[in-house]
Amino acid sequence: MNLTHKIISEHLVDGQMVVGEEIGIKVDQTLTQDATGTMSFLQFEALGLPRVQTEVAVSYVDHNMLQTSFENADDHRYLQSVAQKYGVYFSRPGNGICHQVHLERFSVPGKFMLGSDSHTPTCGGMGMLAIGAGGLDVAVAMGGGPFYTKMPKVLGIQLKGKLQRHVAAKDIILEVLRRLTVKGGVGKVIEYYGEGVKSLDVYQRSTITNMGAELGSTTSIFPTDEKTREFLKRQGREDAYQEVGPDADATYDEHLEIDLNTLEPLIAKPQSPDNVVPVREVEGLAVQQVLVGSCTNSSLKDLMTVATYLKGKKVHSDVSMALSPGSKQVFQEIARNGALADFINAGVRVLESACGPCIGMGQAPGSDMVSLRTFNRNFAGRSGTKNDKVYLCSPEVAVASAITGKVTDPRSLPDLAIHVPTEIVIDDSMILAPSDDPDSVEVLRGPNIKPVPLKEPVTNALDGVVLIKTGDNVTTDHIMPAGAKILPLRSNVPAISEFVFCNVDADFVKRAKENHGGFIVGGENYGQGSSREHAALAPMYLGVKAVFAKNFARIHKDNLVNFGIVPLEIDGSTYDDLQQGHVLSMEGVREALELGSTSVELANSSSKKKYAAKLNLTPRQRHIILAGGTLNWTRANAPQASLA
Ligand code: MIC
Ligand code: SF4
């Protein structure tokens, strides 16, 4: 067996491990963050359970950190009180980015984690099977319910050789993205193996598993070894170590090989993480912003690398450089060992330990400015600036370019030793344990927190107009943007709904309201990117009844089902034919869902054509849509003490 199969088989509570069939997996740990967490905890409360049921549940505050008005601070207070009451650890704002902190303080090899953030796979660098999902799936998991998904294929990536000077772990995942594209990982777990693994430490492995999310994959995972033990030892958690890995004769459904010896520094050009070219192809391009941080590249090692090359130098006068350390631990270490002074001396703008600019919370680049970021996503407008020019690269490329003011191949840097401290101070004072006396805890809600809207069960006939037709690879950032203006509204669905598709089509919301809802038509990989369920919840609130797409990204499809919107697959010619404003109708939708039919007839009264739309849903998903969404279905089907 490969490692993925081993962990799934140890956690399997429902179904058969046959590719494409639905399986239920027991959840050991959950992770939530504030931007998805308020909704997730409101949903958990709606389930009516007294306490979370998983071994570990942690609630982080790292996304909504700008407090330009009362909303975010109110949400933080709600999250802190609800965590105290229901048995959840609470990582306070300032303690760091959820994935980095979880890797350092909670990750355990061989365990299964579900997180309400698409970069949950970061902990795959620790030999965990860690999958991102919508907040509602995580709420159900906190209640003890299994996580349901289709049994993925396992793509084995064999790493050969060793990275050469100034070539980074980031270049490995950029190379995978270059080869597979943003849809190449759909339906697959990516498992790394081979002799090249040994040379990578846990930070490097986690950069790779983190950005594996950009492939659309279910998750990514590495085996554990002495490097993992060393990492845990530094964290004072050596007893959590367990050797996990594939059998010597393990097989994979698909296979790829990467020769680390021949890999060179790479960069993803705007506006997609798979738009990857060698750095030398864009070398010399003037750069106006360099940002180091995000859950991909903000570890102690990354920051020490950047600090080492910045020491005694100044950031180029045309460049604004900023840094957001991945965790308080990392921040504290660079302060203790003097690297922070090197950043300050060089002219770096030091931000707090949080997602920050990665989710458009500040540092939006100016008009036509080139921004180089060590982050994982450069989707259009995500930085907060329309028509942005965001390039994704390694910390080595970032620092080399910050000094010269133009995109620079880091192999021109000298060879300096990078000292990563081995003795680190462990201080968990920013992680609050849950209360021993839950009855005494009052859950505090501010006026920004509105109840979760529920949907009526789906009707037998669905009709309406096509409200929008999109192209391929539309991201949840297109559907439901984030950023400093919109993110504070995550716990207020009526308010956030006003921004659906706002950067793509300013009239979408008006049209949806005038038509009392309707349909969305999408291309391939519809809804890729983040796990934000607001990309389903807000359209549902506006009356969207069904989405027709060539195919869907995994998490977004699950989120549509969770909120009772019917996802239907259409072929290329149907897609070509359907246009915005067309009036569509489907008869017998409930019957089709009840009988398990795989197709319904879609009539287009504008073009007078009829098509077949495919219902590619598991029996469980059909029941959920029939019930009007997961909350209704779970409440009707699970005993109240636990959802197990
Ligand atoms: C992201 O990187 O897009 C986010 C913000 O972390 C999202 C979660 C969210 O939208 O709250 C993700 O990756 O799931
Ligand atoms: Fe935060 Fe960016 Fe990571 Fe998402 S990708 S969790 S916004 S740092």
Q: What does this molecule look like?
A:
- This protein is an alpha/beta fold and 644 residues long.
- Among the domains are: 266-412, Aconitase, domain 3, CATH 3.30.499.10; 462-637, Aconitase, domain 4, CATH 3.20.19.10.
- It has 23 helices and 27 strands.
- A seven-stranded mixed β-sheet has the order 24-23-22-21-25-26-27.
- Strand 15, helix 10 (300-310) and strand 16 form a beta-alpha-beta unit.
- It is globular and about 70 Å long.
- The structure holds alpha-methylisocitric acid (MIC) and iron/sulfur cluster (SF4).
How would you sum up the global shape?
A: globular
Number of helices: 23
- How many strands, what sense, and barrel or not for the largest sheet? 7 strands, mixed
- By DSSP, the count of extended strands is 27
- Termini separation: 27 Å
Q: What is the averaged pLDDT score?
A: 97
What structural category do the secondary elements indicate? alpha/beta
**Level-2 CATH architecture of the domain at 462-637:** Alpha-Beta Barrel
- What percentage of amino acids are in beta strands? 15-25%
